[in-house]
Amino acid sequence: MAELLAVRDLTKRFGGLTAIDGVTFTVNEGDILGIIGPNGAGKTTLFNLITGFLRPDRGAVIFRNRTITGWKAHRISQLGLTRTFQITRPFGNLNVRDNVAVAALRSAGSLEEARDVADEMLRFVGLESYREYETEKLPIGLKKKLELAKALATRPSLLFLDEVMGGLSAEEVRELIQVLRKVHESGTTLVVIEHVLPAIKELCHRVIVLHHGAMLAQGSTDEVFRHPEVVEAYLGEVESDAGY
Ligand SMILES: Nc1ncnc2c1ncn2[C@@H]1O[C@H](COP(=O)(O)OP(=O)(O)O)[C@@H](O)[C@H]1O
Ligand SMILES: [Mg+2]
């Protein structure tokens, strides 16, 4: 499989804290890569560095053989690399459909076309009956789906998902896994940060474990979940409250 993304020696400091410390990995076309690690491990910071929301102090991000280190997020998104946010932040004054249409506007030729793309994405994630809803009134599970629809509206070839299952019921998690499978089958490569570890086990081909900003382990999902240090340090504790 062709290499889509290469991250080399990525490093980010916040004052005296090294939030990401020399992280190196690759993502191939068709992968579903999971990134796990306790709170504060640096997972969101890693996403911010790769998708253009933070500049690294050191290292390189290469997407489709092009060095994009330090590029702004909207330029990176135009190339086909998009992310969702852990803390969803929809435009509260727009309804559900127009929130997604705004995300589609960059590639659509007109507002009408952007709304058509929005409708397509809302159907895809199962939110079509909420099109006219005020976004603020959506329950958390549906806000996560909206976040996914907004990301899909940019038509990414590589999609980074930051805890899209956080705060969802077991039923909603199952539903979202099915939606993500569809996204993957439609040709989008996925990188998934998730605290819901059974979902990672079910969905991901490979897993990276982050610990204090560095990579503690990486490998196939089976290998990583059997890694004694990983099991002892992270999985026991998180799995018990996963609620899924
Ligand atoms: N903008 C920032 N300024 C200062 N410290 C930050 C900032 N963003 C994250 N951090 C710190 O970096 C570390 C990693 O945070 P984060 O990437 O959010 O971890 P995770 O997503 O794995 O929970 C934490 O100690 C956090 O407090
Ligand atoms: Mg985070």
Shape: globular
Question: Radius of gyration in whole Å, from Cα?
Answer: 18 Å
Largest sheet: 6 strands, mixed
Helix and strand string, N-terminal first? EEEHEEHEHHHEHEHEEHH
- Strand share of the residues? 25-35%
Order the strands across the largest sheet as they lie in space: 6-7-8-3-9-10
CATH superfamily of the domain at 3-89 and 158-240: P-loop containing nucleotide triphosphate hydrolases
CATH class descriptor name of the domain at 3-89 and 158-240: Alpha Beta
So, CATH architecture of the domain at 3-89 and 158-240? 3-Layer(aba) Sandwich
SSE topology:
Blueprint: E1 3-14, E2 17-28, E3 32-36, H1 43-50, E4 58-63, E5 66-67, H2 73-79, E6 81-83, H3 96-105, H4 111-125, H5 140-152, E7 158-162, H6 170-185, E8 189-193, H7 197-203, E9 206-211, E10 214-220, H8 221-226, H9 228-240
Bound molecules: adenosine-5'-diphosphate and magnesium ion.
Magnesium ion (MG) is lined by residues 43-44, 86.
Describe the overall structure.
This protein has 244 residues and is an alpha/beta fold. Helices cover 39% and strands 26% of the residues. It has 9 helices and 10 strands. The strands form 2 sheets. A 6-stranded mixed β-sheet has the order 6-7-8-3-9-10, with helices on both faces. A 4-stranded antiparallel β-sheet has the order 2-1-4-5, covered by helices on one side. Strand 9 and strand 10 form a beta hairpin. The longest helix has 16 residues, at 170-185. The radius of gyration is 18 Å and the shape is globular. Residues 238-244 have low confidence and may be disordered. Adenosine-5'-diphosphate is lined by residues 14, 17, 19, 37, 39-45.
